[in-house]
């Protein structure tokens, strides 16, 4: 057993500085747990002159602009990749595995896109490969799913896994501000990037759901398998109707597996206010897991930030070093064992919310409801209000559980009806205990 | 590596039957993870004739009334103790360790009382000893704390760790029913025992907090170190005032560690409705962890029940078998490293809620508030209502943060005032973001 384990860092940005300062600060705790010291020997930076939150050089970490100094250093056993981006990070990690170094990464984009290839290389080189920080920052959700539910069958995962969109939607719900204004506030507070596309279009959440789905269901989910709808088109009207009906709008990552087919998507959905996910506010993240034996469990916490993410990275480093000492490296979070088959629309079931405008004439609602009934869709709740145009009414319905195929067909038929002026919005409804 | 690992079961009650049926059901998943089969070879029962939920005999498990058949069977590597009780279970586990068998238990009473002794024996015999199921049933909280927060300093843990009392208090809060009626309902639904003393007096929660505190702070917490107040004396009046003030009453297990002194207690407390613990309803459990780096994280789920508890037991068995295969048994959740020192009342700080009756005379309130001010206690909120007796007023105050010592002194002084008729209640207030 080594007296001291040297790790190398790729990237000293927000997360990387956190890693250096946490390892420094908790030397005693780490030494107690591991029986050895942990030392960040060298770190790859783009510009060593640039001032950093942690003055890495002072703490005994050599800064370098050449990745080979980290990847080819025989003293370094563990490489931490927190540089971000795809291609450069992918190549660096593959080189690290070839040099028999264990890898810990926080890079969800990379793991979602190239997870299979990286796992394969790790296995081939008998290296450890962990990425707890890639999903929901400081929340130990990946280990929770793989270890905590080891003997259970996970049926469904629902997650609020993007803090930016949750912050925006919380503002919209609680303060009635528009999407644009809420986004501006989020940007001012640092919860949204200057270019918020990856967050608000749902891509960031989709990457995390691909990773979560893979670990929960033990099957490879590709990013292309994840259906994505962003939050840009959400209207305050639907948040207000939702509120009247006891529902809150959230960007929900949804993954379901029945032992055969799998379904993964990210979309704004209305969720019952009684459901614990409805109470997850602002920039917080939470993942709700339905296990056959365990029942419902939720993991809640900060989904991003320098220190939470760095803490998750180091929890992986601790696992790796324990494995090294025991001589059992080469283990992964989990080895997929199922062939993936995606659910068709006829196999996907949910309750739905539809808002539309129809002519305010006798008999209209009866024709509409018989259209739905023919497709086996019945209504759980109906709201009808006069609209600005005196000849039309605004109608909101919440259906009982129906297949997505039937729902889509019903919406097509509905649009064709002369009495229907416009279909305004259509959302899934989750978390209804009577569903 | 063995093709098949035999485990022995002590007790085939609610949890034990769950263990047998889950291991049976998830053979394929377990075999995939472990590379071997898992087989419950024999099980200790009190009465083999008694009908059981799982007909253990049929599934190839031998039933025996002699514990030696399990503890001395050389083929059995792992002993699962789910018989409950203290002395018999303690002796059986010590014998198992002496016979070099790894032990998994769900027995919180035993771990809280004799954890140190059992850990010592496990270490001496190089055996694994895990008890994930002992706290919060199916929620993987112990592993979450020890592995997920490996590189973090946990500052505080607040838990709703007893489902019975949470069910009763949810009923009282939401439906305004009395403690007695809520308890009756809980008993009818099976959420409370015929003799509910251990639950409603807070002892069950205290045991779990002793275990949680030990793992979170890496120091031995004795059950005697945990200050306990039960829920029997809670009055609806205080729930209603709390509601007006934006607070919900919960039985909160509280553990705090500042790196030097530790504080662990269980008591009914008022918690801000904005805090995620306030939304934990009915029989659900949740543990809220404050880590220096990770920030706030919550683990939520079913705290009891046959299947959730059995799933937690098996997650421990999976850990043990992985350790066996790697030849690294003898590991524990965590080895305490700090000497315990309890906080004195002058080192314990909180906000407080006090309800009392005072004479409805000019100048009374000013005398009362100057009494508090002299002890450095200021008020954050004040409610005054006329009481049934026209000469007295009912007063509720919420203080800013104050030391428990000053609060106790203030209450003593308050009681001595001629103007004060009666002090009715006194609770901690938690979860105030402005505190």
TrEMBL record, chains A, B:
Superkingdom to which the source organism belongs: Bacteria
Catalytic activity: L-homoserine + NADP(+) = L-aspartate 4-semialdehyde + NADPH + H(+)
GO biological process, one term: methionine biosynthetic process
Gene3D superfamilies xrefs: 3.30.70.260, Dihydrodipicolinate Reductase, domain 2 (3.30.360.10), NAD(P)-binding Rossmann-like Domain (3.40.50.720)
Positions bound to L-homoserine: 193
Pathway assigned in UniProt: Amino-acid biosynthesis; L-methionine biosynthesis via de novo pathway; L-homoserine from L-aspartate: step 3/3; Amino-acid biosynthesis; L-threonine biosynthesis; L-threonine from L-aspartate: step 3/5
Keywords: Amino-acid biosynthesis, Coiled coil, Metal-binding, Methionine biosynthesis, NAD, NADP, Oxidoreductase, Sodium, Threonine biosynthesis
Binding residues for NADPH: 108
One Pfam family linked to the record: Homoserine_dh
Matches recorded under InterPro entries: ACT-like_dom_sf, ACT_dom, Asp/hSer_DH_NAD-bd, HDH, HDH_cat, HDH_CS, NAD(P)-bd_dom_sf
Binding site for NADP(+): 10-17
Cofactor(s) needed for function: a metal cation
Active site: 208 (proton donor)
EC number(s) given by UniProt: 1.1.1.3
Keyword DNA-binding: no
Domain ACT: 353-428
Family, per entry: Belongs to the homoserine dehydrogenase family.
Stated name of the protein: Homoserine dehydrogenase
Organism: Lentibacillus persicus
């Amino acid at each position: 057993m080594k007296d001291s384990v040297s790790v190398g860092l790729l990237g000293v940005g927000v997360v990387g500085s956190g890693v250096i300062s946490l390892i420094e600060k908790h030397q005693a705790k780490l030494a107690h747990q591991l029986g050895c010291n942990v030392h960040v020997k060298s770190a790859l930076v783009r510009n060593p002159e640039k001032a950093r939150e942690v003055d890495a050089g002072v703490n005994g970490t050599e800064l370098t602009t050449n990745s080979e100094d980290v990847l080819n250093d025989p003293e370094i056993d563990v490489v931490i990749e927190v540089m971000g981006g795809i291609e450069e990070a992918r190549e660096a990690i593959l080189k690290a595995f070839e040099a028999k170094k264990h890898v810990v990464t926080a890079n969800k984009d990379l793991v979602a896109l190239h997870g299979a290839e990286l796992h394969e290389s790790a296995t081939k080189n008998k290296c450890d490969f962990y990425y707890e920080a890639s999903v929901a920052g400081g929340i130990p959700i990946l280990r929770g799913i793989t270890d905590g539910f080891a003997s259970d069958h996970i049926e469904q995962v629902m997650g609020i896994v993007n803090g930016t969109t949750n912050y925006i939607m919380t503002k919209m719900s609680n303060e009635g501000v528009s999407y644009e204004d809420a986004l501006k506030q989020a940007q001012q507070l640092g919860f949204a990037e200057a270019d918020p596309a990856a967050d608000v279009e749902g891509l960031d959440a989709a990457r995390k759901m691909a990773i979560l789905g893979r670990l929960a269901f033990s099957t490879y989910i590709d990013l292309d398998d994840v259906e994505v709808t962003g939050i840009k088109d959400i209207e305050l009207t639907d948040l207000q109707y939702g509120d009247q009906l006891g529902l809150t709008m959230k960007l929900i990552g949804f993954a379901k597996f029945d032992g055969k087919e799998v379904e993964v998507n990210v979309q704004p959905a209305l969720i019952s206010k009684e459901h614990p996910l409805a109470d997850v506010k602002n920039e917080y993240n939470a993942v709700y897991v339905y296990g056959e034996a365990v029942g419902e469990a939720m993991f809640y916490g900060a989904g991003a930030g320098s220190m939470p993410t760095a803490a998750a990275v180091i929890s992986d480093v601790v696992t790796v070093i324990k494995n090294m000492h025991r001589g059992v490296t080469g283990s992964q979070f989990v080895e997929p064992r199922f062939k993936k088959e995606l659910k068709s629309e006829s196999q996907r079931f949910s309750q739905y919310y539809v808002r539309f405008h129809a002519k305010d004439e006798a008999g209209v609602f009866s024709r509409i409801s018989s259209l739905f009934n023919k497709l086996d869709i019945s209504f759980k709740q109906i709201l009808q209000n006069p609209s600005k145009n005196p000849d039309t009414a605004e109608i909101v319905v919440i259906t009982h559980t129906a297949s997505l195929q039937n729902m889509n067909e019903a919406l097509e038929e509905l649009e064709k009806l002369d009495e229907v002026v416009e279909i305004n919005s259509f959302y899934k409804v989750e978390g209804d205990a009577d569903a």
